[in-house]
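Reviewer comment 2.1 asked that we show a complete input and output for one of the modelled complexes. We chose the fe (ii) ion case, as it is the one discussed in the main text.
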Amino acid sequence: MSLAELQENPQIQTYLDKANECACLLGCIEHGARHAKVCADTGRALMAKLGYGGIDMELSAIAGFLHDIGWLVNKDHHRMVSAHLAHQFMSMKEGQPENVATVMSAIGNHGGLHPQPVGTVSAAVILSDFADIHQSRLRKENPVDFDDKDKLHAATQSSSLVVDQRQRTITLELDVDESRFPVNAYFQAFLPRVGAMRTAASTLNSSFRLVVNKSRLL
Ligand SMILES: [Fe+2]
Ligand SMILES: [Fe+2]
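Response of the prediction step:
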């Protein structure tokens, strides 16, 4: 079972587009095919750099790719819907029950402000999801309507998850437009994500670090 096999399914592409359409109509940030691919690629690379095996890399990519597809049904319950859709899509390709279960539980436990990783694949999804912060994801136009999540995205010009294999550190490096969001205020808005990212890194036997505009904050 590989992500490439699932990507051949046009139904998944349609559902991802629909999920993004629903998110945009709700004024939420982008949750479509771009976010799906970024999370899949980031999760796979993270697992590879930390020395996990091929199956963990592939399952992290699959879970990252499908974790938000449930937005096409409902924002608040998208994790449950995404998990069930992942079960459906993986079963169509005769995925092993153990692998399907790993992906389902990883998807079901991502997101929200305080996600708790339930395993290594779950940790990879949490980290890759939270690391995808970028102003291109913003959909609201009037800053008056921005919540903290929107403000973080509006001010972030680039983000990348950097792994140091030797020191076993996972560093989120962000470039922030300080004219839109002073670094101190940005850090305050980012703080609610830190606990989950630290726990996720710890699940991968690593430490989490945060670097904003070349300055290490954590
Ligand atoms: Fe989500
Ligand atoms: Fe997401």
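The pocket of fe (ii) ion (ligand 2) is lined by residues 35, 67-68, 129 (CB under 6 Å). We note this here for comparison with the apo prediction described in Section 3.2.
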